[in-house]
Amino acid sequence: MACRSKLHHILLSVVCVILFSYAGAYDPLDPTGNITMKWDIMSWTADGYVAVVTMTNFQMYRHIMSPGWKLGWVWAKKEVIWSMVGAQATDQGDCSKFKGNIPHCCKKNPTVVDLLPGVPYNQQIANCCKGGVVASWGQDPSAAVSSFQISVGLSGTSNKTVKLPKNITLAAPGGGYSCSPAKIVPSSIFMSPDGRRKTQALMTWNITCTYSQLVASKYPRCCVSMSSFYNSTITPCPTCACGCQNKNKCVLSAPKIQSVVTPTIDNPILHCTEHMCPIRVHWHVETNYKEYWRVKMSVTNFNYFINYTQWTLVAQHPNLNNVTQVFSFVYKPLVPYRSMNDTGMFYGIKFFNDLIMEAGPDGNVQSEMILQKDAYTFTLKEGWAFPRKIYFNGEECMMPSPDQYPRLPNSAPANLFPVSLRAALLAICLLVFC
Hints:
Layout: H1 2-25, E1 35-44, E2 48-57, E3 70-74, E4 80-85, E5 87-89, E6 111-114, E7 145-153, E8 166-171, E9 177-179, E10 183-185, E11 189-191, E12 198-200, E13 203-211, H2 213-216, E14 222-228, E15 231-235, E16 269-270, E17 279-288, E18 292-301, E19 303-304, E20 308-309, E21 312-316, E22 323-327, E23 329-334, E24 343-348, E25 355-356, E26 364-372, E27 389-392, E28 395-396, H3 419-433
Parallel strand pairs: 14-17
Antiparallel strand pairs: 1-2, 1-13, 2-7, 3-6, 3-8, 4-7, 5-6, 9-13, 10-13, 11-12, 14-15, 16-19, 17-18, 18-26, 20-25, 21-24, 21-27, 22-26, 23-24, 27-28
C-alpha cells in the first residue's frame, strides 16, 4: 500500500511539472510560435560531413534582438568542427593533438554565434551575417531566417554512424528559450533555381525551441498606463510592476559616464520610476466621434544605453476587428483563432521609427489609430475602451488593476456625444425655442 501511495505521489509530481512547463511556454496569442532549427547534411567528407544549419523564427511577434543568438550543444562522440561559413565558434578549445590541419573548434560543447554584417563574401552563405538578429515571422518573414554551414569531423560518414548532438541550447538577449532533443526527420527537398530539378539532403534532423516568459524573467519587463478624455485621472503603471530589484542602481538623469558593467537586457541601468520598468506603454482614449473613436499609443524607453530595434507591440482589444486607420505605425491583425479577430500587432516604419532610442528626450515613439464603432458592443463603461493585454517584444506587460481604469463620470451617459455634435444640437435648440 505504501509503495502504491509513493508511486501515485511521483506520478502526480511528474504530471504537475509537465503541465506547469507547458503552461509556461504556451502563448495563447501565438499558440504555434517557435524557433525551428534544421540540420541538413549536404555531403560526406573523409571523416565526417558538411551540413547547413537553418534557424527559422516562426514566432509572430517575438524576435531576437542585438547582440543576437548563441547556439550551443554537446557532441555525442569526439567530433570536431573543421570549418564554418556564416558563423563561428566562440572558443577554439584544446586542439593540441592535431598535427597539420587545425580544426576551427575542438570543444566538446561548442558555442556558435552569427557573423557580423560586412564580412568578406567567402565567409558568407545565404541568410547569414546579421549579427544574430532575427526578425519575427509576423513582422518580416524574409528576415526571420538565419543560416550557417558547418564541416564536422570524427563523426562517422553514413546515416548509421552519425550521432545527433545533445543538450541543444539557444541563448538570446533576455533568455527564455528551451530546446527539444534533436529528432531525425525526412530529408529536406531542394529545388534548382529554374525549378526543373529536385535534390535532397543526405540526412536531416530538427530541433524545436519554445519561449517561456517564466523562464526568461521572474518579473515583467514592461507595464501599461492609461488615460482618457472623459476622466482627468491618469492610471499609472502599478508600483514596482517590474520588480524593484534595480531600485538601488537607477538614475534620475542620463549618466555622464557609462558604468564598468556593460548594461544588457538582463542587467539594465534604468531611469528611476515608481514602476521600475524598462518599457512603458501608454494607452490614451483621445476622442469619441459619432461613428468612430480615436486612441493614442505611446511607448517610452526608460533603459539607458540600450536601444530597441525592430520592436513589436501587440494589443488585444475587442474593437481591433474594426480598425479604420493607423498613423505612424505599421498595423497587422493577428488571428490565432478563426472565430476571434481581437488581436493586432504594431511595429515601426523602417528608417522612421523602427528604433526606440535609449532613455531620454528621443526615447519614445507614438501613434494614433481610428476605430469604427460597433453599435452592439461599443461602450465607454467599465474600462471597455482599454486593452485586455499588451505585449512588447513578445513579453506580456503588467496591466493596472481593473478597478483603477479611468471611469466615466457617474452622471455621464454610456456613449458620450462629441463636442461638435453637442454644439450643433445646442444651436438647433436656440433656433427653435428662441
